[in-house]
Design a protein that fits this description.
- The protein is extended.
- A hairpin with a 6-residue loop joins β1 (18-19) and β2 (26-27).
- It has helices at 2-6, 46-73, 77-83, 93-131, 135-153, 163-166, 169-189, 193-207, 209-238, 246-273, 279-283, 288-301, 305-335, and strands at 18-19, 26-27.
- α12 (288-301) packs across α13 (305-335).
- The chain is mostly helical.
- Helix content is 73%, strand content 1%.
Length: 336
C-alpha cells in the first residue's frame, strides 16, 4: 500500500488525452470539462481513499473559512468577486445563506425552548409563593401532585415531594394539560364558533408549546427565503437607472442576509452562554446591521454617500413594512 502514497501526482504536461468514463468526452486534465467528473481513481486501498477524501474536505473548509472572513469584514466584496468571475475560491452564495439560516434557526429553537421552560417554572413558583401562606393549602397541593405522579408511574408506593419537585417538567406539563382540558370543556360549552376555535387553539398550544414554536420558526425560515428575491426586487426598483440584470441584486441580497443571520446567531449564542452579563453588550452588535448594510450599498453600487443614504432609508422603510406583514402572517399561520 505504501507505493500508492509515494506516487506523485503527475503534472498537466505529463497527462495524455483520454475519454471521460462518464460522458465519453475526450480531454486532457484532472476534471472533465464537459461533465465535471474527476479523474481520481477509487479502486485503491482504503487508506489512500480516506487520505484523498480528507484532503478535499480540508480544502473545502479553507474555502468556507475564507468566504466567511470576507463576508464579515468586507461588505459587498464577495458579490463583487462573484461577478468578476472569481467564484471557485469562495463557497457558493446560496450555500452560505442556507448554512447560516440553519445555524440561526437551530439556535433560536434552543433559545425559545429554554425560555418556555423558564416561564413555566416562574409561573409555578408564583403559584407556590401564593399558596405557601397557608400550610394546609401547600399540603393539599403536594398531596394532589403526589397522587397524580403515583398514578402516572403506576406505583402505589410513597413519593416524597417538595418545592423542587413542583418545578420539574412532568409536574409543569400536568398543570398545563389540566388547564388545556378546562379550556377544551369551555370550548365544548360555547356556541360561538370563533370563541370555540380560539379556545381550542390555546388549549392545543398549552399541550405542546414547543411544537408551536418549532412550527413558527419553520415558517419564518421559509418566509426569509422568499424575502430574498423580494429584497432584490426592491433593489432593482431603487437602482433602476443602473441598468443591470436582476441577478446582481439577488446575489447581493443573499450575501447581505447571510451576514445578518451570522450577526443574529452571534447574539443568540451570547445570550445562551451568558444570559445575565455579557449578552447585553452583544445586543449592541445589532447596530452593525444598518452600518454594514449602508456600507455594502455604497461599495457595490458606487454612488455618493448622500444618494446611498437616501436610498438606504427608502429601502429600509419598504423592506421593514413588508417584513412586518410577513411576520404577522407567519404568526397567524403558526397558531392556526
Amino acid at each position: 500500500m505504501k507505493k500508492w502514497f509515494n506516487r506523485k501526482k503527475p503534472s498537466f504536461d505529463e497527462l495524455e488525452e483520454h475519454a471521460c468514463p462518464n460522458c465519453s468526452h475526450v480531454f486532457k486534465g484532472f476534471y472533465c470539462p464537459n461533465c465535471g467528473q474527476s479523474t481520481s481513481e477509487f479502486d485503491r486501498p482504503v487508506g489512500f481513499v480516506f487520505y484523498d477524501f480528507l484532503g478535499n474536505l480540508l480544502a473545502f473548509d479553507s474555502r468556507f473559512l475564507r468566504t466567511f472572513r470576507d463576508l464579515i469584514f468586507k461588505p459587498a466584496f464577495l458579490t463583487q468577486e462573484f461577478f468578476k468571475g472569481r467564484r471557485a475560491r469562495y463557497a457558493p452564495p446560496f450555500r452560505v445563506y442556507i448554512f447560516m439560516s440553519f445555524i440561526l434557526f437551530l439556535l433560536l429553537q434552543v433559545m425559545t425552548n429554554r425560555g418556555l421552560n423558564t416561564a413555566l417554572e416562574y409561573s409555578i413558583a408564583k403559584e407556590w409563593e401564593a399558596a405557601s401562606a397557608s400550610d394546609s393549602v401547600v399540603d393539599a397541593k403536594l398531596d394532589s401532585v403526589q397522587i397524580e405522579l403515583q398514578q402516572s408511574m403506576g406505583d402505589e408506593s410513597s413519593v416524597a415531594l417538595n418545592y423542587d419537585d413542583l418545578l420539574k417538567a412532568p409536574n409543569v406539563k400536568q398543570g398545563l394539560n389540566r388547564l388545556a382540558s378546562q379550556l377544551e370543556l369551555e370550548a365544548d360549552r360555547t356556541d360561538d364558533l370563533a370563541e370555540k376555535k380560539e379556545l381550542a387553539d390555546v388549549a392545543a398550544m398549552l399541550r405542546s408549546p414547543d411544537q408551536r414554536v418549532a412550527k413558527f420558526l419553520q415558517y419564518l425560515s421559509y418566509a426569509f427565503f422568499v424575502l430574498l428575491p423580494v429584497f432584490a426586487l426592491l433593489l432593482s426598483l431603487i437602482y433602476v437607472r443602473h441598468h443591470v440584470f436582476y441577478v446582481r441584486h439577488l446575489i447581493f441580497s443573499v450575501h447581505l442576509h447571510a451576514f445578518i443571520f451570522f450577526l443574529l446567531s452571534l447574539v443568540v449564542v451570547a445570550y445562551l452562554l451568558l444570559p445575565d452579563s455579557v449578552s447585553g453588550f452583544f445586543m449592541w452588535l445589532l447596530l452593525l446591521i444598518p452600518v454594514y448594510s449602508y456600507w455594502s450599498l455604497k461599495k457595490f453600487y458606487g454612488q455618493t454617500y448622500l444618494k446611498t443614504l437616501a436610498k438606504f432609508l427608502l429601502l429600509g422603510f419598504a423592506y421593514h413594512a413588508i417584513l412586518l406583514v410577513v411576520l404577522v402572517s407567519v404568526f397567524i399561520n403558526a397558531l392556526g
